[in-house]
Amino acid sequence: MSLYDLIMRRRSIRNFKDQEIPEHIIEELLDVANNAPSGGNIQPISLILVQEAKRRKELSEIVGGQPWVKNAPLSMVFCIDFYRIKKWSSMFDTDFKGENALSHFLIAYADLMCAAQNVVILAENYELGSVYVGTIQSNVDRARQYFMIPQYVLPMMVLSIGYPKSVPRNIPKFKRNVIAHKERYEVLSDDDIKKAFENKYGSFDDNVEKYLKKAFIEVVEADKQQDQKSWTELVKEEMKKLEIRNNAQFLFKLRYPSEAMVKMNENLVRAFRNAGFDFYGL
Ligand SMILES: Cc1cc2nc3c(=O)[nH]c(=O)nc-3n(C[C@H](O)[C@H](O)[C@H](O)COP(=O)(O)O)c2cc1C
Which atom number of ligand 1 is nearest to the Cα of residue 14? Predict the structure, then answer.
């Protein structure tokens, strides 16, 4: 299979077989994470391998009860790690102040995702599936405590990996010309913006179950993997209550309500401060 086909075939996997990943493959996954591009080649990242059942369960709770984190044989907790660099620089009569420099932080987060995406691609090549779980960012303090993560280290992303039991095949994407601009930014007309999203999501579907498979696969997968059906029902109730009538409302009234998203700043900034990060005035 060409690399193009491999990447185009990849989907986020949330339904894993109960099958261990061979150690030599895990070692290669770590190699490609370590070999990823890194701003200034500073490599301000660490990752924690989570494989023990009890730790998988706890991590799953830390990320808000997403069952695939418990069910995957391996999760990697990707951290921005300024601890190691700060220690090293202080031993050599200089200091590194990444915890106060937004620029270092942004580059470190990009480094982290480069490393993680290398893992995603190599995993795919071994017929492993994976899913990013970003909600660890809502529980940084608890994750730091549980994994004994020191100051100046922030767990920012989880990648759960395993052999797929099923692959979702209904995930909508933009047409490529929506995201690609030639030589300069080409502002889309209101009509073109509407069309871009219409092409992506299709018309708002009355069949809620079918709609959720396309627009909120997480709840459909979660309900398949737990005893009582609850998330889908909750979403259906919310859709009714909030009178959701289109795709945009579904996303920004229900899934990512704008006010609530802004409110999450408080929690995140507090967790950053607890880890020793402070971007003064921001
Ligand atoms: C930064 C980031 C955070 C994500 N967080 C979650 C998450 O918390 N839970 C989850 O089930 N999927 C999560 N995903 C996976 C996305 O839902 C998924 O990539 C998206 O639905 C598109 O599907 P695809 O990966 O199959 O193209 C995340 C993806 C990214 C890139």
Answer: 11
